Amino acid sequence: MALRPIKGRPGKFLETSSGRVLDISDYREDDKYDTIAINAGAMAAGTQFIFFRDVAGKNLIDTNFTQQSRLSAGEEMIIDRVGVTVRNATGAILPTPTDIKEVAENAYLRIDINRLLMQEGPVIKFPSGYGLAGNTVENGQGIVSIGVPSTAAAAKLLKTQLITAQNEVLGTMTFFSRAWAVPVPFAADPLPNFSVDIMVTCWLHGLLKAAVSKG
Questions:
Q1: Is residue 97 in some structural domain?
Q2: Does residue 104 form part of some domain?
Q3: How many other C-beta atoms lie within 10 A of the C-beta of residue 97?
Q4: What is d(CA 112, CA 206) in angstroms, rounded to the nearest whole number?
């Protein structure tokens, strides 16, 4: 479901699979997002965490999905960027820079729409442009993010994707074993070992249309 600008018709985009014409003046720039929690301790090989599916009981600080794996009724979204952040604080729990690096460099993310692959790769590939940046020291710790501190610098999808409340969206984050690297001295422990409980948020950024967006 890719979108293509229509020449000579500003604000109009063609949804190539259906031939439908979209008017982006009906949309606002925004994010849909969801958060998963990872317990402190050693990660087992093959452990998976699912974004956008288990939303029951969560509030707006951690997700704005109200339905499992789907947008709310009446919503449509043109996705042009996917990002991941490790929350720098969850209550009074502060992940260390090491924890954040272990997610960014060891986790693998796959985003599916209607069980078809939209985007995949190591989490380090998915900077969101959100999060703290700069230099500071707190209890001997500095600020770490998985990428650029500016949304303008975060890479966008070459082909935007249109989803509606009829589409199923899933994000799967997997920690694979690197058993092949164990003989290498620095890879003797090929899986993360988190010092504290952490939370990770996946962001779908783009243009969002809702029933009240023109109000």
A1: yes
A2: yes
A3: 13
A4: 16
Structural domain includes residue 17 = no
Tokens describing residue 58: 């969560």
The answer to whether position 20 is within a domain reads no
| Tokens of residue 81, six digits | 């960027």
Q: How many domains does the chain have?
A: 1
pLDDT confidence of residue 8: 76
Convert the pLDDT of each residue in 121-176 to its tens digit. Answer: 999 999 888 876 666 666 666 777 777 667 777 778 888 888 999 999 999 999 99
State which residues form the domain around 156: 30-209
Q: What stretches of the chain adopt beta strand conformation (E)?
A: 3-5, 12-15, 20-23, 28-38, 41-42, 47-51, 76-86, 107-113, 116-122, 161-164, 169-175, 193-194, 198-209
35: Cβ contacts below 8 Å, ≥ 6 apart? 51, 58, 62, 63, 87, 199, 200, 201, 202
